């Protein structure tokens, strides 16, 4: 498979009165064509900011990408003019935001919003655009698409609006879709409908997908690969199987253990990740997880671990990953 | 066991009894002279009991009437028909003054910890206000002491007393909501999506807190949520609603091990399990279509247009909610 997206040492910071927030602090990863990569991690760890950085959508001020490279289909996105970047955003990389209501224009019909995008990016005339819009709505499972095109966003339910967003994202045949919590606002049955749909479409059209989510079940079901983030960094990455069955970072382990599981006997007590998330304005050169870590040693304070490959396709940033493996095996 | 074909015992340990509750909201059209053109049947004949010390889970798709049921119990809505009994008192018969002591015994924790806290009040004031209203701890000093106690019970540092809601994280704000509910020493708390907005690690902290408090103060909960794994962890019994109606009710383990209603089955199979090996093998039964409009609910069984087991009769006869096994209630003619 060919590399579609290459993120190298990306750093994004916010310059606030409280100090410099290192929201993304040097992350490196690739996405291959047609691949689904999930990004997980606790609230505030930099998932959304890293996605917005790829699209060059960080509000400046207060934010700025201060380092690193992003290559999309071999091209360095930083070198593009604003105009060319807009074309990339419309045609090649699409974004599905968390809250579909705020990303659809409430005063325009669904039809106008889709056909406008199509006309702009694909040079279709009005009729062609309309026909394509009907086709797209049908594809995302919206019945009676002709009638829906004439309706406004508030006429649709949350699940339908989210599907319209996906139709919009697909409208220009992108190579990559970035979906930030695409189903968090929806209930489980609609969530399942939408995710099955996205999975089918990525397979059918060979579209790559970066999906940001809190839902570890969703990751297990749909992701090929998982990036676990903590305090602006990727601290573990691998196939969903490797990361779930053989986690090598204490944070990954703690995260997996914190959720109740329907397939296992009920536990007397849940095991939350202890302690508080770190202050991103006060990061030092040590490992950011060490105050909450049961495996921490002196070295973790003096010297932050770097991401190393421990097996083909499985990387981890932890000095104690061997210890963790041993502990899990003896347990 | 049951009273008039309803899932209700006569036991003296029943704290909350909901009897054939209906809440129909009028739908109006016309700006100048609004006319009622129909009704949203948000809750349409729901009955259940909650025993003292029990946690009852209430689940179902968005819009099925969970919050409305909770609001009716709190008497924030005047039900179209049906009764709410609390500790054998019919709340519908109480006037405002009579309701006041009940408002102390029944508390609620909302989903959105941000909008449910007054942004201009300090955390200490937010927690002491309900004590003021209900004249609990009238002495300023003991009240301040109790605020600190409550913060500590909820795992919050004493320094938060002087902070404002916007200076706290989502998980911390949710704990303030819990501390405020506990301030008046309630017996019964309605938790409406109380942990839904939190990320998984903070969610686990808040769930543990709710469990500890339940044990310590012998609290009774109505736990409204859409995360079925969380409901299974926390609840003793679970009720499943669909489009204003109760479709299944059973002990927690029984419901998850042996779901009977096709909707409950679909709901459970839609929950992804955090294990890729299991997920890749599992068969997924996706419920087709959207939840229909509660203004014009389908005839017969309201679930029949989306049901994979529906037969001809399902579009005609309304299935009876009946006890198919001791304590296990289902509304489906095909069970
Ligand atoms: N405009 C901004 N100004 C200052 N800080 C910001 C701004 N936007 C984001 N941040 C900070 O950057 C960090 C990363 O934020 P981000 O939105 O990427 O988190 P996230 O991982 O997506 O969290 P969530 O799961 O809650 O969506 C946070 O600590 C946040 O407070
Ligand atoms: N005041 C009202 N006037 C008219 N309709 C209402 C009112 N309150 C609720 N409804 C309608 O009643 C139905 C049930 O709403 P309710 O909020 O109880 O659902 P819910 O099960 O809590 O859903 P969610 O999971 O999305 O919170 C919905 O169709 C809703 O639109
Ligand atoms: Mg985010
Ligand atoms: Mg609700």
Describe what this molecule looks like in 3D:
The complex is a heterodimer of chains A (331) and B (335). Chain A has helices at residues 47-54, 82-92, 100-103, 110-122, 126-139, 145-149, 158-170, 188-205, 216-222, 240-245, 250-257, 298-302, 321-330; strands spanning 3-16, 19-32, 36-40, 63-72, 75-76, 93-96, 176-180, 208-212, 225-230, 233-239, 308-311, 314-316. In chain A, helix 4 (110-122) packs across helix 5 (126-139), helix 5 packs across helix 7 and helix 7 runs parallel beside helix 8. Chain A is globular, with a radius of gyration of 21 Å. By secondary structure, chain A is an alpha/beta fold. Chain B has a domain at 2-97 and 106-115 and 188-197 and 215-330: P-loop containing nucleotide triphosphate hydrolases (Rossmann fold, 3-Layer(aba) Sandwich). In chain B, strands 6-7-8-3-9-10-12-11 form an 8-stranded mixed sheet, with helices on both faces. A 4-stranded antiparallel sheet of chain B has the order 2-1-4-5. With 335 residues, chain B is α/β, with parallel strands linked by helices. The chains are: A alpha/beta (331), B alpha/beta (335).
Précis, in short:
The two termini of chain A are 38 Å apart.
List keywords for this structure.
heterodimer; A: 331 residues; alpha/beta; Rossmann fold; eight-stranded mixed beta sheet; B: alpha/beta; globular; binds adenosine-5'-triphosphate; binds magnesium ion
Secondary-structure element order of chain B, N to C: EEEHEEHEHHHEHEHEEHHHEE
Number of strands of chain B: 12
Distinct helical segment count of chain B: 10
CATH architecture of the domain at 2-97 and 106-115 and 188-197 and 215-330 in chain B: 3-Layer(aba) Sandwich
Physical arrangement of strands within the biggest beta sheet of chain A: 6-7-8-3-9-10-12-11
Strand order of the largest sheet of chain B: 6-7-8-3-9-10-12-11
Number of helices of chain A: 13
Using the CA coordinates, give the radius of gyration of chain A: 21 Å
What ligand species are in this complex? adenosine-5'-triphosphate, magnesium ion
The top-level CATH class of the largest domain in chain A is Alpha Beta
Largest sheet of chain A: 8 strands, mixed
